[in-house]
């Protein structure tokens, strides 16, 4: 029998946000300096960035500094500074300071399907400028030991250069064919909204980022030569886990979950290489940081000092501004949206809707506010940015300029709902919509003003009972191969339960009919039937049950 309980959980559809999708020319803002006020609240309320200061970890190397909160109490600032100096070895200022995680702890295994054939991609050519950039990057990777030269590889991929914002080139490898041959790792990546909710409501926070995160994990030795890429200088493969490979995020998350298993949800939140140490009160923060640093030291993971901030009451975590009061929209996202001008192409509107999807939890009635954009997308390539789109766009800018503060959910409330749902799941609970009030009113009117006819009522009750009665149909057969029986039960709701029986003992035809009847009655009893109408093709059996024979 079906057992079902429904639990409504409200959730957003956040993902990893990329602010770069909404870049615009700064000249547009300069030409229209007064078209949009970022936030009409006073300047103090718009100050989202916490003041920070740098401290030197080693007087002999004054260039090695880390950032801490400038508003820390005097004694707390001294304690945090001393702790950072004590654990200065957990920071890496270059790849030479990063030995990597031991293979005995974890390594990235490709697990290539044996049925997949190796692919050697056709070599691409680059112009002189890009060739120089590739040569420099390959030389750098060789020096730090991230790659090594190989010969006669089975898998060969091409290099892809991506231009950075500073007009420099980022070297990537096209692992498309290799990724197709690898199965997907089912290791669960944490939900961003849950991590952000868990980070809010704490008095003191420290934000950390791993140095060249993925490269701290080494490749599984037999899989190194499957990551080969081709250059003018030769063929090289990765000895560390590179960007672009399938399942690298799952491998890294598996590592940090294993490292911080005793801290996650208590005083630590980790999403891949983004780490956050949190403390309910300021006086506990030094102890929480010490616990985190001990784990980093044990596993040999290194932090990027330029991306770490320690001892601040608020900061940016996974695209949101978190602090003790709750969760706020990232100011960078508001500014990115404020700098946008009217959109014209289909791709521009798609970028906008994707960007707004990441802000869904901050936008009340988001479907209504974004409806003009979705209507425009329905036209496909003939998209037209009309007046409705422009008005909705400007209204969204103004609304997000005053985005609300989201309070941290109460865990005891959601916990009680989950507990009730689990406890109710053992019962046969089914939701039935309320019947139309008009039909109920007519039925009540007829029942009130119609004279009773007891005979008719009795017949209707009997017909109803007969209509919704349990039915049992049995049949038995005997041949040279043995004896068999068939049982079919029809429930009052119209459900059918059928069973076929085969007896391993010798029996007459009547005995088979009796056995079929007994088996059918057992099925009805198990299903909870209280009154059963039995059908059989054996008159002997029927009369015997009715005490007529």
From TrEMBL:
Q: What is this protein called?
A: RNase H type-1 domain-containing protein
InterPro entries cross-referenced by the UniProt entry: DNA/RNA_pol_sf, Rev_trsase/Diguanyl_cyclase, RNA-dir_DNA_polymerase, RNaseH_domain, RNaseH_sf, RT_dom
Q: Where is the RNase H type-1 domain?
A: 472-549
- State one molecular function term (GO): nucleic acid binding
What residue spans carry the Basic and acidic residues bias annotation? Answer: 38-50
Which PROSITE patterns does the record associate with it?
RNASE_H_1
Give the span(s) annotated as Disordered: 30-50
Q: Which domain of life is it from?
A: Eukaryota
Q: Which Pfam families match?
A: RVT_1, RVT_3
